[in-house]
Design a protein that fits this description.
Distance between the termini of chain A: 36 Å
CATH topology of the largest domain in chain A: Rossmann fold
Strand content of chain A: 15-25%
Helix content of chain A: 25-40%
CATH superfamily of the largest domain in chain A: Translation initiation factor eif-2b, domain 2
Radius of gyration of chain A: 20 Å
Oligomer: homodimer
Largest interface: A-B, 58 and 58 residues
Mean pLDDT of chain A: 97
Strand order of the largest sheet of chain A: 8-7-6-9-12-18-19
Structural class of chain A: alpha/beta
Shape of chain A: globular
Chain lengths: ~350, ~350
C-alpha cells in the first residue's frame, strides 16, 4: 500500500539476505520501523509480542517461519508446533504453518524443502493479497448500495481494532471494502474504535486510513453504542480471527458489544474474512474457540504509564466471540453469505 | 469513608476559612490532593474540568457554589445559570442549584441569604449521604439473594465508570450495595470497567474498592461482553447522571453496551440513583437528554501521551442513554422499582 509515496507491505522476504522483513507495528503510528527476522525464534517472538498481528498476517508470518526453520535445518515438526502455539485464537496461523509443513514433508531433499517452503509461503502471501482484493470488490457493493440509498450523502462505517492492510499484506479484510469505496469516489467516513488495551484502532487503523486520505474519527470503545443509536453509523465491518463453519466469529475483544448494538439499532454488521480464517472443525464458537488471555500489564500500563492503583488486579482477555445471530453476513473472497452453516457451505461446497 | 484510617468525604465546608474543600479527582489514584474552592468561578472550574464529577457530587458542589456566590455578593441568578451550564447531562446540578436558589430568593437580607444557602447546601449534602446509605441497604438484598442462590460462592458484580463515594459524598450509588454486602460478610468480587477516556473505573473505582479491601479486577471496557457470556458476572450495577420518569438512564458512555450484553446473557442490570437524579420532565431519554461532547484531546492524549496519529480526528461523547427495556430495575433511597413509568411513579407518587 502507498505510504508517503512508497509501496509498502507488512511482510516480505529479502531473498539475498535470507531474512524476513516486517513492520514493527508496536511502534506505529509515531515510528515506521522495519525489523529483520532471521530465525524461527525471531518469528515466534514477533508473533507473540505482536510486532505482527492480525489473523492473515500472522498466518503468512508463520509460513515464513517454517521457511526459516527449514533453512536453518531445525527439527521441523517441533518448530511448527512452537510457531502454531505462539498465539491461540486466530486459526490462520495453524492453517498456514500446516500448509507449508504438509508440502515439505513430501520430499527428503534439503534443497527441495527450502524451495518448497519458500514457494508455499509466497503462494500463501499472494493468495491472501488476492483474497483481500476480492473481499474489497464484494464489500464495495454493500457500501455502494448504502450510498445510493442516501443519495450520495456520506456513508458512515464503523470498524473495530485493525483489520486493515497492517493485519494482512495489502488492502486488509474489513478495510478492503473501505479502500475500494474510497477509490470508487464514494463519499465515506470511518468511525475507528480505539480498541483497548493495545489501541490497534487508534494507532493502526487511523494511521492506515490517514495515509490513504480517508476521512475518519477515532472514538473510545465505549462510544459505538451511542453513535449507532443516533443514526451516525450506516454499516459496521470488522475482521475476524476465527469463524466457525456455523457462523460464530471470534474477533478482537469488544466486537461482540458492537454487534449487539448494531442489532439493537438495525444496522448491518458484517465480518470480512478470507477462507483461511474459517475453522471447519468447530461448531459452537462461544464454547469452543480458545480465547487468549494476555499479560494484565497491557491493561495496567500504557507505554510505561501506570493507569491503575498499583495493587489492583487486571485481566486481559484478547478476543470475544460474536454469535452468528448478531452477524448480518460474511464478506469473503468467494462472495457474501449469511452467518449460517447452510449459507457458508453454499460458498464452500468442498467443505460440506 | 475510611482512607488509610482517616475519615474522608469528597467535599466539605471549612466554616472558619469560608472555603469549600474537595479532592482533586484528576490526580487519583496516584495522588490524594485536597483543593480549596473560594469563589463560584472556582466551583465552575472544578465541575467543568472534572476535579469533581459524578451526578450527586456535582449537585452538592453546585449548591456550595451558590453559597460562595451569595457570600461574595454576586448577581445570584446569573451565577446560578453559569453553574448549571458547567456540565449539561447530569440533572442533579440544576436540581441542587435551583433548590438553594429558590430558598434564598425568599429573603432580601444578605446575612439571612448566606445562612440559608449554607444550610441548604448542608441539607442537600446530608440527604445525599442518607440516600446513598439507603440505596446500599436496598441493593444489599439483591446481592444477598444471589449469594444464597450460589451457596455462598463469590458473587461477581460488574460496574462501569465510578458511581462510588467519590461520585457522591459517602457510600456511592452503584457501590453502596457493594460496600454493604462486603460489610455483611458476603463473598464478592467486582469487575471494574476501565472507562475510557478518563478512566474513572481504573483510577477511581479501583482506588476506592482497594482502600476498602474489596476484591476487584480492572478490565478494558471491551471485555464486559465476554465475561458476561462466560458466566463470570452475576449482576451489573451502575450509576446514572439523569433518568427520565419513564425509565431511560443516561450514564457514562459505554453503559448502554454493557446493558445490551447483560440482556443478551440474562444477567440482571440495575441502575442505582438518588431521587435527585430523576428528571421528571423528560419522557424519551434517547431523544431528549443532552449528551455532553467534551474536548477530543481527552481521547487523543493520556496524561500528555499522544495515542493517535496527530492528524486524526477524535470525538468524545461523554454519556449514552440506556433505554428502559434493558434495565432490570432502579435502586433508589425509597426502594427498588422496575424501569417503567408506572413503577417509578409508585415509588414517587408525589410526582404522578
Amino acid at each position: 500500500m502507498k505510504v508517503d509515496n512508497n509501496d509498502l507491505r507488512t511482510i516480505w522476504l529479502d531473498e539475498k539476505e535470507k531474512v524476513v522483513k516486517i513492520i514493527d507495528q508496536r511502534l506505529l503510528p509515531h515510528k515506521l520501523v522495519i525489523v529483520d527476522l532471521k530465525t524461527s525464534d525471531d518469528i515466534i517472538y514477533a508473533i507473540k509480542n505482536m510486532l505482527v498481528r492480525g489473523a492473515p498476517l500472522i498466518g503468512v508470518t508463520g509460513a515464513f517461519g517454517v521457511y526459516l526453520a527449514v533453512l536453518n535445518n531445525e527439527d521441523i515438526k517441533i518448530t511448527c508446533d512452537k510457531i502454531k502455539s505462539a498465539r491461540p485464537t486466530a486459526v490462520n496461523l495453524s492453517w498456514a504453518v500446516d500448509k507449508v509443513l504438509s508440502k515439505i514433508l513430501k520430499t527428503d531433499s534439503y534443497i527441495e524443502k527450502i524451495k518448497i517452503a519458500k514457494e508455499t509461503a509466497y503462494e500463501i502471501t499472494e493468495d491472501e493479497v488476492q483474497n483481500c482484493k476480492k473481499i474489497g470488490e464484494y464489500g464495495l457493493k454493500l457500501i455502494k448500495d448504502i450510498s445510493l440509498k442516501k443519495n450520495g450523502e456520506t456513508v458512515n462505517i464503523l470498524t473495530h481494532c485493525n483489520a486493515g492492510w497492517l493485519a494482512c499484506i495489502e488492502y486488509g479484510t474489513a478495510t478492503a471494502p473501505i479502500y475500494a469505496a474510497f477509490d470508487a469516489g464514494i463519499n465515506i467516513h470511518v468511525w475507528v474504535d480505539e480498541t483497548r488495551p493495545l489501541n490497534q484502532g487508534a494507532r493502526l487503523t487511523a494511521w492506515e486510513l490517514g495515509k490513504y486520505g480517508i476521512p475518519h474519527t477515532i472514538i473510545c470503545d465505549n462510544a459505538g453504542g451511542h453513535i449507532m443509536q443516533h443514526n451516525m453509523v450506516d454499516i459496521a465491518i470488522v475482521g475476524a480471527d476465527r469463524v466457525t463453519y456455523t457462523g460464530d466469529a471470534a474477533n478482537k475483544i469488544g466486537t461482540y458489544l458492537k454487534a449487539l448494538s448494531a442489532k439493537d439499532n438495525g444496522i448491518p454488521f458484517y465480518v470480512a474474512l478470507p477462507s483461511s480464517t474459517f475453522d471447519w472443525n468447530i461448531k459452537d464458537g462461544v464454547k469452543e474457540i480458545p480465547i487468549e488471555e494476555r499479560n494484565p500489564d497491557e491493561v495496567r500500563y500504557m507505554e510505561g504509564l501506570l493507569l491503575t492503583p498499583k495493587d489492583s488486579s487486571c485481566a486481559n482477555f484478547a478476543f470475544d466471540v460474536t454469535p452468528r445471530h448478531l452477524i448480518t453476513g460474511f464478506i469473503t473472497e468467494r462472495g457474501i453469505c449469511k452467518a449460517s452453516e447452510d449459507d457458508i457451505m453454499k460458498l464452500f461446497p468442498e467443505k460440506a
